[in-house]
Design brief:
Length: 251
């Protein structure tokens, strides 16, 4: 499950599908606990923590530690800026061993790219840390979602990010089996849960929500089966529709 710990981010990257900006929209401890229950009920034991910038959450370390206690693996996706603060890093490196760190950057989009060498040094200091220099083609067309601040960027995405969830949901019999199959196929960024507990089939909180963690999973499963995407992140829904037609789902 992809968990958006906060909607806040100070970088303002032009490709941000979330349109994240400085904000006080942070996940509460109560919501985090409910999300943990929801994920366990869904049979998901691998959590990816994102945002916004998750480490800008005032209680980021506390909440990451909480998730690490309840799940097999917690991956924190960050822009890395907060980790360059020595005081913050001293606390972060004491998180449980099952917390992995992915620092993302790119020369064309991240204003923090100039600090790449500093980010690379963190790979030697943290047990499970990867600096991901995002592999976008250096052309006028990028493999990103046309959402948020990237709305006017030409995208190569040919199917909505919710497409895999919809297609798999129409081949299995329950929400839990859906999550199991999605993980077996190594899709780790869907579904996602917003800071307020809203559930999305895509990666972004700008996607249309199918409900919340407070609803029963049978209801979420049925909505996933019948969802047809808002087409807010892709050039076309044709690949999704083609897949549904092959499954005998009349459109």
């Amino acid at each position: 499950m992809l968990v958006h710990l906060t909607q806040s981010c100070s970088l303002g990257c032009p490709h941000c599908m979330q349109d994240a900006k400085p904000s006080n929209n942070h996940m509460s401890r109560e919501t985090a606990e409910k999300i943990a229950d929801f994920c366990r009920e869904s049979g998901d034991f691998l959590i990816t923590i994102s945002g916004g910038e998750p480490l800008e959450h005032p209680q980021a370390l506390e909440l990451i530690h909480y998730f690490a206690y309840h799940f097999q693996l917690v991956t924190v996706c960050t822009n890395g800026i907060e980790l360059l603060d020595k005081e913050f890093f001293a606390k972060y490196e004491k998180l449980p061993f099952n917390v992995a760190t992915q620092i993302s950057t790119h020369r064309d989009f991240y204003t923090s790219y100039s600090r790449l060498k500093e980010f690379k040094s963190l790979e030697k200091k943290l047990a499970f840390c990867t600096v991901y220099d995002m592999d976008f083609a250096r052309t006028d067309t990028y493999r990103i979602s046309s959402q948020g601040r990237a709305i006017n960027m030409q995208s190569q995405r040919k199917s909505p990010s919710c497409g895999n969830m919809i297609l798999v949901a129409n081949q299995v019999s329950s929400w839990c089996s859906l999550i199991t199959e999605i993980r077996r196929k190594r899709y780790f960024c869907t579904p996602s849960v917003g800071f307020n507990g809203s559930v999305y089939l895509g990666e972004s909180w700008l996607c249309e929500s199918i409900g919340s963690i407070n609803e029963d999973t049978d209801t979420l499963y049925r909505r996933t089966q019948n969802f047809r995407g808002c087409n807010g992140c892709a050039d076309s829904k044709e690949l999704l529709f083609r897949g549904l037609r092959q499954l005998g789902k009349v459109l």
